[in-house]
Every structure is written in C-alpha cells, then in structure tokens.
C-alpha cells in the first residue's frame, strides 16, 4: 500500500477547465480519511495551489514551481531553491525581443508578466499577475522564469529550449510543463527531488510514493517514485522518456481519481 500520493495538476488531476471535478474531490477527501498523505506537485505558484487545497479541505504538502518551493500541511515554507540572478537576466535578455513570447516569473508571493494577457486568467480563480520591466527584471527570490505563446506553437518554444540549454544548461533545469509552456528553474530543482524530501519528512521513502503526471517537468518524479503513472494525453516526448511506466486515461475522465479509488481505496 502506498502511503503518499503525489499528483501534477494541469492535464493530470484538474479537468480540462482547470478545476477539481466532483468525483476527484470525493476521492481525495476519502484518501485523507484513510490517512494517506496527498502531495500537490505542480509548476503552479504556491498561492494558487493553496487556494485549491483550501477548497478541498484536505491536509496536503505542496510542491510548487516544479520543486523550487515546498510547503507543509500548515502552509509553512520548508524548502526553497531560487534561480540565480545571472540565469534570470540571461534568459530574459535572450528572449525579450521576441514579440510572440510572454515572459513570466514566480517571485516570492508574486506572479510577474512582461505584458498583459487576458487569456491566462482562465487558469486561476483569484491569483493574478503584475507587470515587470524586461529591461530591469527583479532577480531576488525568483523560483522560476517561464515562457508561453498565445498560438501555443510548441516547435517555436523548442527552439528557445535549445537556445537556453546552449547558454545555461549547466546552471538551470529547463523543461516543458505543457507543450506550450517552457520553464526555467535552478539546476537540481525537480518535482522528483522535492518529493524525496517530502517523503523523508513524513518518515517514508520514495518507494512508498505513487505519482501521476503528464509533462516533461514530471519526468523525474514519475521515474523516482515507487510507481509513476503517465497520463494518456501526455505529449509523446513524456511517453518516450518513460517507456516502462504505466499509462492511464485522460484528465477529462478523472483517470487519476478512478485509479486511486480502484487501487488504494478498495483494498
């Protein structure tokens, strides 16, 4: 029996409207009643995730910004790893003149963005961005910098992935959370290593963890957990990176909740 359940949010636990569906809510609350530890493991900001956790009314650790921040069940920050100032300035300097790119930063309790984008607000209930100057970006307390495009052109972002890796590959973890969101964290930051720290804090090991995800930013976690489940709707790169991992259904069908009910709640 697994003692810790870790799950990504967008494309995995949340439905296509980026919400917790009723059946999923019920399953997560039943897990809590059985004292099975739940961990949100996401690229989202901790304030955003805290709102989701509060609505679910369950105790849960929060791995956010792809592992750059970890908060315990009481909402206390127990781990952080910031992106270096040189990498922040460097990736922004490289990308700032591409008019198709939206440049985001998670800094402290803030979500910063280089230009207005109403489309992004559908992902969040109340957590919203503030604008920042790409010619003078803040460089302290930054968990990650990430890049999106309105046209969701994955191949265009792949080119930026290659550029960033060529310049900063030894100083940063550069990964896609979705095919249209390219993220830059400090080297050594990953959901997998954060999950290992959470497991140890709870008195368990990675072998006691079951994890779910759909993005390349989930790859370390899915490989390191005792069992890692890949969503059927994952990008082909994820499935190719984890050829031995079991593939389940879609977030639209609440596949994570159905798997948990069948394998953890009926035994």
Automatic annotation (TrEMBL):
Keywords: Hydrolase, Magnesium, Metal-binding. Its cofactor is Mg(2+). Its EC number is 3.1.3.74. This is Pyridoxal phosphate phosphatase YigL. Belongs to the HAD-like hydrolase superfamily. Cof family. Signal peptide: none annotated. The keyword Aminoacyl-tRNA synthetase does not apply. InterPro entries: Cof (IPR000150), HAD-like_sf (IPR036412), HAD-SF_hydro_IIB (IPR006379), HAD_sf (IPR023214). It comes from Photobacterium aquimaris. One of its GO terms (molecular function) is magnesium ion binding. Transmembrane segments: none annotated.
């Amino acid at each position: 029996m697994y003692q810790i359940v870790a799950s990504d949010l967008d494309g995995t636990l949340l439905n296509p409207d980026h919400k917790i569906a009723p059946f999923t809510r019920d399953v997560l609350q039943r897990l809590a009643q059985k004292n099975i530890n739940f961990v949100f493991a996401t690229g989202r900001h901790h304030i955003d995730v805290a709102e989701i956790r509060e609505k679910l009314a369950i105790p849960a650790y929060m791995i956010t910004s792809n592992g750059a921040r970890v908060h315990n069940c009481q909402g206390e920050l127990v781990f952080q790893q910031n992106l270096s100032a040189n990498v922040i300035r460097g990736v922004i300097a490289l990308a700032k003149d591409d008019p198709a790119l939206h440049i985001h930063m998670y800094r402290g309790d803030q979500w910063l963005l280089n230009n207005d984008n109403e489309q992004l607000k559908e992902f969040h209930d109340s957590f919203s961005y503030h604008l920042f100057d790409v010619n003078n970006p803040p460089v302290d307390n930054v968990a990650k910098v990430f890049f999106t495009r309105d046209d969701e052109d994955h191949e265009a972002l792949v080119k930026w992935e290659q550029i960033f890796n060529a310049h900063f590959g030894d100083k940063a973890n550069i990964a896609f959370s979705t095919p249209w969101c390219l993220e830059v964290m400090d080297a050594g930051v990953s959901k997998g290593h954060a999950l290992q720290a959470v497991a140890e804090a709870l008195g368990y090991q990675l072998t006691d963890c079951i994890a779910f995800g759909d993005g390349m930013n989930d790859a370390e976690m899915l490989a390191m957990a005792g069992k890692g489940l890949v969503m059927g709707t994952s990008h082909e790169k994820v499935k190719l990176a984890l050829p031995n991992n079991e593939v389940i259904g879609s977030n639209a069908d609440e596949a994570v909740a159905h798997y948990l009910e069948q394998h953890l709640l009926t035994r």
